[in-house]
């Protein structure tokens, strides 16, 4: 079982993130090859030799790397068959302004949509400001971008904003997906219909645009995972040997509590819940919002 991590990187931050994911996957006993599309052309990389593929691209001038786009388009059919993940690296994701972070997410989603590839695991990571590596013009541009994000920076030093815990969490989710697909190959087609929303994304979308939309997240709780599913009616677990026992309904709070007794290492991040009603969502307390996302699928 071997994974492929493909990335493009201009100043090395996406590469560092790819290396970190590689190390984290090794902790899950999942070896990977880490390949740079700048050094290896997309047509040269034999994706069919791998069981799972993870792709990372930095954002420059609002665009993701064209070589990554080519790689995805070139291997689209195969990528749809296997467990995959995508991460985007940008400064906007490091912004103090929620709007900027949302914009980074929107651009990443738009990029994926344009390639027609839906990786089940996706996240946007904050990148770095590496003034020491920029020429004069780039420095001015980057200084402006940083200012727009609410950061006062100096040319004298480099800045790294990447949240490494979030990167580890991403790698863990990917490992869970790979394990799940290995154990139950029949689930693969289902995974390709799912999307793992990032924390903020799922919440914001629900609360601002369509209050009746689905909102799913889980809170890590000392090795156990509790999933909060706001709904007013019943919700159903997707029956799967991976998911374990869940579902307890709290009608008073109008929150569904999904719980699995499996250990994290066994893959209990994979909670699958299907929302069955479209009634308005209840408000969530701040403490409940800081959860981790879970697998979800709606009947919309
Ligand atoms: C020339 C240039 C343009 C950039 N444009 C954007 C941008 O439009 N939006 C953004 O959020 N970040 C932008 N960034 C920030 C990069 O996404 C960030 O520095 C990231 O860490 C780069 O990853 P890399 O080192 O792997 O290339 C830009 C960086 C450079 C150097």
UniProtKB/TrEMBL annotation:
Taxonomically, the superkingdom here is Bacteria
The signal peptide, as residue positions, is none
Give the InterPro entries listed for this entry: Flavodoxin/NO_synth, Flavodoxin_CS, Flavodoxin_dom, Flavoprotein-like_sf, Protoporphyrinogen_IX_DH
GO MF assignments: electron transfer activity; FMN binding; oxygen-dependent protoporphyrinogen oxidase activity
Q: Which Pfam families did the record assign?
A: Flavodoxin_5
**Required co-factor?**
FMN
Protein name listed in UniProt: Protoporphyrinogen oxidase
Which species expresses this protein natively?
Rhodopirellula baltica (strain DSM 10527 / NCIMB 13988 / SH1)
């Amino acid at each position: 079982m071997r994974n492929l991590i493909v990335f493009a990187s201009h100043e090395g931050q996406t590469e560092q993130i790819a290396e970190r994911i590689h190390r984290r996957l090794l902790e899950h006993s999942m070896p990977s090859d880490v390949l740079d599309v700048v050094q290896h052309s997309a047509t040269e990389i034999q994706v069919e030799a791998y069981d799972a593929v993870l792709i990372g691209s930095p954002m420059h001038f609002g665009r993701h790397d064209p070589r990554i786009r080519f790689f995805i388009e070139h291997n689209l059919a195969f990528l749809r068959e296997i467990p995959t993940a995508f991460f985007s690296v940008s400064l906007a994701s490091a912004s103090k302004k929620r709007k900027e972070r949302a914009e980074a997410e929107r651009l990443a989603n738009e990029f994926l949509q344009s390639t027609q590839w839906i990786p089940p695991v996706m996240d946007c990571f904050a990148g770095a400001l590496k003034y020491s590596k920029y020429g004069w013009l780039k420095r001015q541009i980057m200084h402006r971008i940083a200012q727009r994000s609410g950061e006062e920076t100096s040319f004298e030093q480099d800045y790294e904003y990447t949240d490494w815990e979030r990167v580890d969490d991403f790698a863990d989710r990917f490992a869970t997906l790979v394990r799940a697909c290995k154990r139950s190959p029949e689930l693969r087609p289902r995974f390709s219909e799912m999307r793992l929303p990032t924390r903020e994304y799922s919440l914001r979308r629900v609360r601002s645009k369509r209050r009746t939309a689905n909102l799913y997240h889980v809170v890590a709780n000392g090795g156990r995972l509790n999933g909060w599913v706001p709904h007013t009616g019943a919700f159903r677990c997707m029956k799967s040997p991976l998911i374990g026992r869940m579902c307890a309904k709290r009608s008073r709070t109008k929150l569904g509590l999904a719980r699995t007794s499996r250990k994290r290492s066994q893959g209990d991040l994979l909670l699958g819940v299907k929302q069955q009603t479209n009634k308005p969502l209840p408000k969530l307390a701040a403490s409940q919002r800081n959860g981790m996302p879970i697998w979800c699928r709606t009947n919309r």
